[in-house]
Amino acid sequence: MKNLIQLGFATLLSVTFMTAKAQSKDTENSTLWEVSGNGLTQPSYIAGTFHIMCSQDFEIKPKVLKALEKSNHFVMEINYTDPTEMAAMQKMYQTDKKLSDQLTPEEAKELDKVLADYGTDLKKMDNSSSQALYALISMKALPCPQTEIKLYEIELLQNALKNKKKVSGLEKVEDQMTSINKAYDLKAVIGQLKMGKEYEILLKKMITAFKKEDLQSVYTLFKNDKIMNAGQEKAMLTDRNKNWVEKMPEMMKKESAFFAVGGAHLMGENGVIHLLRSKGYTVKPVSSL
Question: Which cofactors go with this protein (predicted)?
């Protein structure tokens, strides 16, 4: 369970660190999208996910499971079946330089005070990375114990493995960590920690919207300027989306692929849906299969 929770924290970074400007003209909403045309001999699918939530809120729509069943290839942001990637993920929670050595005495004292709200202190967290610090927000924002946490991608992965699907990832852990570190240094993460209660409120609203398959509202909720500025958005969302969309055509050309990525990656002018349409693909919301 501990390893799965860490996976959840890693994937939650992807959704928590995302924002963009909503487009009022984009009223299409669904957690599942079909990709066809542009030379494809069979459709592929994109599922917008909500990486981690409590079991009481968790549900994978039947149409999503049916789309996965119809596909040959299951593709996540990161391939959790790759031992090398899992080893890299474990390392991302550690640091070669103590947190206290990266801060002034005053800043260290302030962080220690902030960490008290998360049930820990700087002494216990001093050898952790800034990503590990951010994971504390995830833990506090979820209104349930660890034993009741569900990981959307892991549930899909288990289904894919059970049905002997090919599994791969759109990026490496190293790529994702490079994006996160480019967008958020230690002091920026501390600033996010101070927003603990605001994240609880935001997460609750996002989950409510996601359960209604309203990815547009999930996307819009990330407009909060306290979470992300333009530069951070480029590093965490836009650049990654563009990199993924360059890899997806080859995957879809070979066989029917099922992509599972954080829901906020789909929407907006730099979202996966718009970028694929710009390449000539037909991308449409799926109401049922």
Answer: Mn(2+); Co(2+)
